[in-house]
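Notes to self after the call with IL:
- keep both proteins in one doc
- input above output, always
- annotate only the second one for now

Protein 1:
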Amino acid sequence: MYRGLNKMNLVCMAMLWLATPGAGSLADQARAGLLLYGERGAGGEEIVTRLLFTPGKLRIESRDRAEGYILYHSEAASIYSVTPDERTILVIQPEAEKPRIPDGMALKLERIDDIDAPEIGGSKPQHWRLTVNGSVCRDAILAPGLMADQRLLYRDYLMLLANQHYLGLAAVPAEYRDPCDDAVHVFAPALFVERGLPVRVWDQHGYQQSLLDFSVEKQVGTELFHLPGDYQLVPISQSR
């Protein structure tokens, strides 16, 4: 309910995209953390998603920037979904209490035997598995200790987004809900990212995510983290 090429071609396209992060003079540049992921749903086309981090701010966008992007500002505890075609900014500021795992939902997160894989940025990858109500839900290869500050910011974003999902959960018919999706996106969204940088993720629905690149030294234009001043702000409660 929450789901939104050749491998070499994908990486080459990603590298070309990374080479042009945004115009601006050196004075308008900032050092940012970068995560680049390739993602694919079951039977779907693989897309590239870029995450850029500066202190207290996160930008998420697909390779096709015309579709818009997401900004998270931690100080404002707000998520902004920017749509250039409509010149609108959807503002997500959930006010409800944080979701709590239901009594009838049994979560088990366990570390599987260490995998035989080379270190990534000095970190030895680990295999973790999430089980929900006795069924395998999601597996992840994580790099502990890597991109720690960026992971904390991403965790806060995931938890705020989960709060918004929680507000609308009661309106979703039971037949359209899945315990694994509820666990991953609503009740325990940060289980993996708190333990390491996701290098590879897969689940029982066929979803796959692979880390293509990462850096803490990316130079980007500071304008990438600013909201357009002439767009209409639309609180999410008014958009329903």
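Protein 2 (the one to annotate):
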Amino acid sequence: MKSYTIHLIRNALTDENLEGRYIGHTDVEISEEGKAQLFQMKDELVYPPVEALFTSPLKRCTQTAKILYPENKPLIIDGLIEYNFGEFENKTAEELEKSPVFPKWLAGEPGVQPPFGESNEDFENRVRDTIEKITDGLLKTGITSAAIVTHGGVIMAILSAYGIPELPMHEWMAPSGCGFTIKINPSLWMRMRKFEVFSEFPYEREELPD
């Protein structure tokens, strides 16, 4: 039986990342430092070629995808966009200290969401629907290797929902330009909607997986 490989890759570094800002739907670009860092990692590490490339529509993801996989034409998927932070967008934790909602949201209280933002439930449902459609599409077409360039929050939501080992979201945090390789066994996926988190990504040159 075929196995399917998907590399989940977080967008390259932005200036807003360094400033500790909550950036969800805000369409910022990767920083010059982020570009340099990504080119260096591409030179020193291994981002294997893939048959299919998917990306969030936001610039920080499309720019990352173009640098890592210039030969692939990306398929832009709106469902891969980051969490919508609403009124928390583009603000730091320090700037939100006086918000009565912020500490409750940060603590993960049920039913609490940023004003005019996305609820955790809506975000998780959107991400799950998107990754299931992508995975089912790969299995249907027989495409066995793909990369998904998306956001840190999206990667954490995907792996906490479907990943083996089963770990909470914060355990799946990835550095910029990095992520995780997942292996999909069609039988396990169809039966349990689960996949194996195979390794961190990208790879050291001497540690290429089979």
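Annotation: The longest strand covers residues 4-10. Strands lie at 4-10, 52-55, 75-76, 145-150, 163-164, 179-184, 195-201.
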